[in-house]
Amino acid sequence: MKKGLFIVFEGPEGAGKTTVIKELESLFTDSNIEYIFTREPGGISISEQIRDIILNKDNVEMDGRTEALLYAASRRQHLVEKVIPALEKGKIVLCDRFIFSSLAYQGYARGLGMDNVMEINNFAIEGHMPDLTILFDIDPREGLKRIHINSEREVNRLDLEGIEFHEKVVEAYHILAKRYENSTVIVDASKSLAEVIEKVAKEIITFIERKGYI
Ligand code: TMP
After folding, report:
1. What is the Cα–Cα distance from 209 to 194, expressed in whole angstroms?
2. Which of 18, 136, 143, 168 could be joined to 189 by an S-S link, Cβ 3.0–4.6 Å?
């Protein structure tokens, strides 16, 4: 049986991932590709509950390792309950954030160490790495400016970190893009929304064609 493809969208705050994903959804609906869209942390009830705890602005006491473990726990449940079953049915899984987020935010920006964070995540994901990661690349200052302009978007606990934190997130993403260059594509997210959508759609179509899906 044909196994599905796991495609992940990554990037710093305000890179426009969520907006682009919404637009892509209509593109996919009009095709006959079998897919699901989902997100981390969240995507299913248990993981959405964990998301609420992690991102709650009142949880100022949260320790960095607790945060990393909660993201890994949320990831584990989402993976076994939603992602793996869809892949086993041969579907394309399009997921807003995955392990790179933990490596960049907790491992690098929070200073826990990418190797330490990888270790707890290895326990959580048991080798289920993305087939393709699309990295939305943007200057962190530009990204933060965008989220402050977009009043519809709720500001979460991690958004409140200083600019140095967000600069480190972007630096880490660049390190990861090099480390996983065979499965990562970088998209310039400072371009117009229409250009970014076109580029991301093209990358996905090329990838799934190459894998013999269409
Ligand atoms: P979102 O706003 O893209 O939905 O992501 C929620 C926040 O959680 C965002 O600030 C990035 C952060 N995050 C981590 O720090 N580590 C992770 O592993 C994930 C998945 C998200």
Report:
1. 22
2. 136
Confidence (pTM): 0.97
Q: Which residue has the CA at smallest separation from atom 21 of ligand 1? A: 101
Per DSSP, helices labelled H in 105-191 are: 114-125, 140-149, 163-179
Q: Which amino acid is at 31?
A: S
Other beta carbons less than 10 A from residue 27's beta carbon: 14
Question: Residue 12 C-alpha to ligand 1 middle, in angstroms?
Answer: 9
CA 144, 150, 151, 153 dihedral sign is negative
pLDDT digits (tens, 9 = 90+) for 116-153: 999 999 999 999 999 999 999 999 999 999 988 876 77
CA–centroid distance for 82 within its chain: 15
Q: Which helix (H) or strand (E) holds 135?
A: strand 132-137
The answer to whether the CB of 41 is under 6 A from ligand 1 is yes
Tens digits of residue pLDDT in 39-71: 999 999 999 999 999 999 999 999 999 999 999
Question: CA nearest 100: which of 127, 130, 76?
Answer: 130
Question: Mind listing the domains of the chain with CATH numbers?
Answer: 5-211 (3.40.50.300)
